Amino acid sequence: MTCVELRGLGKDFGARTAVHAVDLDVPTGVIYGLLGPNGAGKTTTISMLAGVVVPSRGKATVAGHQVGAAGGAAKRAIGLCPQDLALYEELTPMQNLAFFGAMYQLRGNALDRAIGFALEVAGLADRNHDPVKTFSGGMKRRLNLAAAILHTPTLLILDEPTVGVDPQSRHHIFDAIRGLRDDGMTILYTSHYLEEVEELCERVAIMDHGEVVAQGTLPELVARHGGAPVLELELRGHDSALLAARALAARHGPIEGTPTLLRLPRPESLGPLLTDVERAGAHVVRVTAHAADLESVFMALTGHTLRD
Predict the structure, then answer these.
(1) 224-248: buried (b, 16+ CB within 10 Å) or exposed (e) per residue?
(2) Pairing mode of beta strands 203-208, 31-35
(3) Nearest 5°: phi and psi at 190?
(4) Roughly how many angstroms between the first and final C-alpha of the chain, as a whole number?
(5) R_g of the chain computed on alpha carbons
(6) Largest alpha-carbon pair distance within the chain?
(7) pLDDT band for position 269 (50/70/90)?
(8) Which residues make Cβ contacts (< 8 Å) with residue 145, sequence separation at least 6?
(9) Alpha-carbon distance 176 to 197, whole Å?
(10) What is the CB-side half-sphere exposure of residue 209 using CA atoms within 13 A?
């Protein structure tokens, strides 16, 4: 089953096109990563999906409901955890959640149960009477998450949910996200940390220049776009020895890098390469093998690192 469907979704701001015409399917009950360099159109796409930005073309549906349609069923199916903290720091967690719960039209026992559930997921049940201004950055991030799940949405959108958090809070947020997924919630996750996406997400879409340039599971993306594994050789020696070593190493594959740091596709057998380099008079200080991963996929598709 599909939780999110985007068909030809695009947005223009005057003469500038922020998102062209995105087609995207997010299956139900998965953690789905949405990646892209700055300016790729991720935030605009998320904003259109959440119903806070009106698209210029195309449509988005969530749980079978069209975003922007009369009745607001799609909006009620969405929980949005924004990158900027949406909290009242003079209030306690319980007071914050009571306010947001009322906006979700939760009342009485239903609101009490929702607050209890959200505080438990965030690991803040023991701090529910302390002002938010006394919390660490990680605790505020966890409360931000709690506010987004009060109404147990079908789709949870997490926009950079671990910015500025300590390792303990990051670990807690990860566990909470996995638990929500295991309970059937679909999660759309954006981050500037590739290692988070590799650890959490079953499927990934990569955006660049307002378009989705690739999507699939991590193994699928690595197989299609990751390129060959790379070997790095750090060398020492006289200039003549380094030049001779580079020439001999080139017999094993195309060489990149500096005279003292050679990069080449990883050969099937390492022994002959090392023998040639040593025979040239250079000394091998370090050998590092780099397997294809999400970072290499991202670089191949966008020409940038994720934090550029």
Answers:
(1) ebbeeebbbbebebeeebbebbbeb
(2) parallel
(3) -115, 145
(4) 35
(5) 24
(6) 81
(7) confident
(8) 81, 121, 122, 158, 161, 173, 176
(9) 15
(10) 5
Identify which of 276, 271, 282, 269 has the alpha carbon closest to the alpha carbon of residue 248: 276
Q: Which residues contact 18 (CB under 8 A, 6 or more apart)?
A: 11, 12, 41, 44, 210
Residue 73 token pair: 């069923």
CA atoms within 13 A of residue 197's CA, in its CB half-sphere: 29
Which residue, chain included where needed, has tokens 């149960």? 113
Across the range 93-114, mean pLDDT stands at 95
The whole-angstrom separation of Cα 232 and Cα 250 is: 13
> To 10 degrees, what angle do helices 167-182 and 108-122 make?
130
Residue among 48, 100, 77, 83 nearest 158 (CA)? 83
Q: What is the structure's pLDDT at 265?
A: 84
pLDDT above 90 (res 227): no
Residue corresponding to tokens 């958090």: 165
**Whether pTM exceeds 0.85:** no
